[in-house]
Design goal:
It holds the Pfam family Inositol_P. By secondary structure, the chain is α+β, with helices and mostly antiparallel strands. The protein has helices spanning 3-35, 53-68, 85-88, 103-107, and strands at residues 43-44, 50-51, 75-77, 93-101, 114-121, 124-132, 137-142, 146-151, 157-159. It has a single domain, classed as 2-Layer Sandwich (Fructose-1,6-Bisphosphatase, Chain A, domain 1), CATH 3.30.540.10.
Amino acid sequence: MGLATEYQETHKWIDLLDSVKDIARKAGEIILKIYGESDVGIRMKSDNTPVTRADLEANQVITEGLISLNLGYPVLAEESEHLPLEQRQLWTRHWLVDPLDGTNEFIHKNGQVTVNIGLIEQNYPLLRLVYVPVTDTCYYGGKTIGAFCQAGKEQSATMKARKINQDNIIVLGSRSYGNA
């Protein structure tokens, strides 16, 4: 790949991520609006996990937003109807969405919720985004562009990987799933 082509490819992904950030922020606005209400519309799904109005409304905004990008990629979202695995296995590239990760945390209003959107190709992430509505912080990146963090309207900061010290590994868990 020539330098000019690589530059164009990189900017294509950055432009796409800018659009996805806007979609995630719109979903975050809905989540925060409902977060402030006393009745968030809790019901139980068939797998006995909770879903709220915020999950469903954010799911709709994200799904419609991704489809409106006109890329032709199917959307696999947690709160949408899923096609059979046999059909999904034929997808070479698709969006993977959890519109409100941390529904239990949302219900308990502890602020530990995120919007997760990824563009997957052959089971590997090309682009990924995690948006924290409560702090208006967005973590995003892609295979060929690196990883970034953006707080509010500030300029994005580059995130760098570092080698893990095998003697000093930290493991995190969720308050809601302490037995996992």
